[in-house]
Amino acid sequence: MPGSQNDALKLELKRLIVSTCNKDINPEFIADEAPLIGIHSVLGLDSLDVLQVNTALLQRFGVRIEDGKHARRVMKSVNTLADFVEP
Q: Has residue 1 been placed in a domain?
C-alpha cells in the first residue's frame, strides 16, 4: 500500500509545510494524497515554497531534496513526502 502509515509524521509534515510557507489552512484539512505543488493543490506550493520546505526538511529531519525533478516526485503528496523522510 503506497504512503507512509505514520500518521504522526504526516501531521508533523503538514504543520511544517503550512508554517514554513505561511499558508492560511489548518494542516489537519490537508489530505494525505492531495497534491502539494501546482494549480491542483489546495496549498498551491511554488518553486520558492519548495526551496523553503527543503531547508526546513534538512533542519528538522536531515534530508535534502536534490533538484526540481526530485522535488516533484518527493513532494507529490504528504504520503510521498513521508515516505521520503521516513527510512
A: no
Helix (H) or strand (E) holding 43: none
Which residues, 6 or more positions from 47, have their beta carbon under 8 angstroms from its beta carbon?
Answer: 68
Q: Give dist(CA 83, CA 78) in Å, integer.
A: 9
Three cell numbers at 13?
509534515
Query: Is residue 2 in a domain?
Result: no
Taking CA atoms, 35 is separated from 39, 53, 59, 65, in Å, by 9, 15, 23, 17
Rounded Cα distance between 41 and 86, Å, is 23
The pTM score is 0.91
Say which CATH number the domain at 23 has: 1.10.1200.10
* Amino acid at position 54, single letter: N
**For 20-35, what is each residue's pLDDT tens digit?**
999 999 999 999 999 9
